[in-house]
Design goal:
This protein folds into three domains: 1-58 and 202-277 and 496-522, D-Maltodextrin-Binding Protein, domain 2; 59-183, Dipeptide-binding Protein, domain 1 (Alpha-Beta Complex), CATH 3.90.76.10; 281-493, Roll (Dipeptide-binding Protein, domain 3), CATH 3.10.105. 27% of the residues lie in helices and 20% in strands. The protein contains 15 helices and 19 strands. The chain has helices spanning 48-57, 105-116, 134-138, 168-171, 182-188, 240-248, 263-269, 297-305, 309-317, 347-360, 379-393, 406-414, 432-435, 453-463, 468-483, and strands at residues 28-33, 62-64, 70-72, 75-80, 86-91, 149-153, 156-160, 204-210, 214-219, 231-236, 254-255, 274-278, 281-287, 322-323, 370-376, 398-404, 420-426, 488-493, 495-500. The chain has a six-stranded mixed beta sheet with strand order 14-18-13-17-15-16, with helices on both faces. Strands 1-10-9-8 form a four-stranded mixed beta sheet, with helices on one face. It is globular and about 70 Å long.
């Protein structure tokens, strides 16, 4: 998540693929990745493209099934106490690292402590803040051995929470909860992620990594059940045109995206290979509230209310993505999605209000608002942001566009180096996963540094509720309260736009766009 980072959008990427040779061996998979990973350390990851590879290399307590549903992973089962605060996970006694060493509860204790330890500098450490004392440890206020995690014995792991968190098994799907090999890290330190030192507990191990060319994964000889494919190659294919060209040439078994303007042709000519699936996701604009004039809610509202998401999805990109009217994605069930205050108002009325808001904030024809709109490189993203700039130009705003590659873009966002930016977040069916981005203690995934005591209080109150319905009611109130200040402007939920070769079996479309290689076979 974002971040489960949206980090995240297949529309927001661009890179150059290197030539690749078509393989005839059905035991080898060639998969197009939506960009170049920045790291394969699960405790330091940020990007969704990293999740795809890390999910092949590691196995968490819970994991994805072939169709993207939650299932037991390194833990065969788990119990939860009546108060919802103590969870006990029972590990599979057959679990092994790729060097043959047994996976034990102590490995998970080490790994959770490593994630939360401030020395690790894990930007997504807050994913595991539900653990008792986690936030205080991450802030340097307590020692790491005070974290609510202990090994009952070699095969029983106890997690103690600060507050009830019924979504814990879903949260454990992320790489932040993966075990890492203490016995290797203790010997070689950060060099453990190099192929020559690599040890992991998933279906595959890292054999080679040539940046901007490919990552080569080999089957973990100790993983059960054995995956069908002996090798998996992940190719950075963020440039959707290049990915499309290579898929047509037969050198990739599946690609993460193709140019949106090819969709109509592909629907007609390659319907059997086309896979469109709505995703648990949110693409949005974020305003940097650290700096004037975006610290002024009048400016944020003026910019937000004149953007028309349906125009972006249906007329500009024509990508199959779904325009939204709330910050929590529409696919999140059992949640009342509050409408934005300007929903249903004619564009002309919204433009008049926007001009009035800008005037009251000190801007006008003699002193126009000027801003830079940042986004991650990509043809589809460029079209969308050109259209967004046009919306703003109609109310007298001067806009400069700035694009950068995905990992640079999100580094800028985490550092607060922007005026307004397009961002994304993918992940859970839990509304808190999204609204948590607007909490003042969300760390650097609260890109705009929005802070509001009332919003924080509602989210904190929701986190104290064991009952999911009660949590969701409070979170809906928090969303309503937050969006009155327009810290973000929701745009659309992604539709995964993949091409998958017909002979590739085991592929199932799902809202998480999760396709573990261990279930795939050619």
């Amino acid at each position: 998540m974002s971040s489960r980072l949206l980090c995240l959008s297949l529309l927001l990427c661009n890179a150059i693929m290197t030539p690749l040779v078509k393989a005839a061996d059905g035991k080898v998979l060639h998969l197009g990745l939506a960009g170049e990973p920045a790291t394969l350390d699960p405790h330091r990851y940020n990007l969704r493209i990293e999740e795809a590879v890390l999910g092949d290399l590691f196995l968490g307590l819970t994991t994805f099934s072939a169709d993207g549903k939650l299932m037991p992973g390194a833990a065969l089962k788990w119990d939860v106490s009546e108060d919802g605060l103590t969870w006990t996970f029972y590990l599979d006694p057959k679990g092994r690292w790729s060097d043959g060493k047994a996976v034990t509860a102590k490995d998970f204790v080490y790994s959770f402590r490593r994630l939360i330890n401030p020395e690790t500098a894990a930007s997504l450490a807050y994913f595991m803040y539900p653990l008792r004392n986690a936030e205080a440890i991450a802030n340097g206020q307590l020692k790491v051995d005070e974290l609510g995690v202990r090994a009952v014995d070699d095969l029983a792991l106890e997690l103690t929470l600060a507050l009830p968190y019924p979504h814990l098994p879903e949260r454990l799907l992320y790489p932040t909860a993966y075990p890492v090999p203490a016995h290797v890290i203790d010997k070689v330190g950060d060099a453990w992620v190099k192929p020559q030192n690599w040890v992991s507990n998933g279906a595959y191990l890292l054999r080679d990594w040539k940046p901007q060319q490919h990552l080569e994964l080999a089957r973990n000889p100790h993983f059960e059940p054995k995956p069908a494919a002996l090798q998996v190659f992940h190719y950075p294919a963020a440039n959707t045109q290049n990915a499309w060209n290579r898929f047509r040439a037969g050198t990739l078994d599946a690609i993460a995206a193709f140019p949106a303007n090819e969709l109509a042709t592909i629907r007609t000519e390659r319907a059997a290979e086309l896979h469109l699936a709505p995703q648990l996701s949110m693409i949005y604009l974020v305003f940097n509230t650290r700096k004037a004039p975006f610290s002024d809610p009048r400016v944020r509202e003026a910019l937000a209310i004149v953007v028309e998401p349906a125009t972006l999805t249906d007329k500009v990109m024509k990508s199959g993505d779904i325009p939204v009217g709330s910050f929590v994605p529409p696919m999140v069930a059992d949640y009342t999605h509050p409408a934005l205050s300007h929903a249903g108002q004619p564009l002309g009325d919204r433009q008049r209000r926007a001009r009035a808001l800008l005037t009251s904030a000190g801007f006008g024809p003699a002193n126009p608002l000027e801003l830079t709109l940042r986004y991650a490189t990509g043809t589809d993203a460029k079209r969308a942001n050109l259209a967004t700039a046009a919306f703003w130009q109609q109310i007298g705003v001067r806009v400069e566009l700035h694009q950068s590659e995905l990992k640079v873009h999100y580094a800028d966002l985490r550092q607060g180096n922007f005026d307004v930016a397009q961002a994304g977040w993918l992940g859970e069916s839990n509304p808190e996963h999204y609204l948590g981005l607007l909490h003042s203690r969300a760390g650097d995934t609260n890109y705009g540094a929005f802070a509001d005591q009332a919003v924080d209080a509602l989210i904190d109150d929701a986190r104290r509720q064991k009952d999911i319905a009660a949590r969701h009611r409070l979170l809906a109130e928090a969303e309503t309260a937050a969006m009155k200040h327009y810290p973000v402007m929701p745009l659309f939920a992604l539709t995964s736009r993949r091409l998958v070769r017909a002979e590739l079996r085991g592929w199932h479309d799902n809202p998480r766009d999760a396709h573990p290689a261990r279930f795939l076979v050619r």
